[in-house]
Design goal:
mainly alpha, elongated, 38 residues
Length: 38
């Protein structure tokens, strides 16, 4: 059960990071604004 939860968490993290990176790649202006704001 713990292993299943851990693997689900890993997959979710990878998918989330990939979606954020692809969004920043598609929208460089959004990434610039996010960096300036943060």
């Amino acid at each position: 059960m713990t292993g299943l939860l851990l693997s689900a968490f890993c997959v979710g993290t990878i998918v989330g990071a990939w979606s954020i990176l692809s969004l920043l790649a598609l929208r460089p202006d959004l990434g610039e604004r996010w960096r300036k704001g943060g």
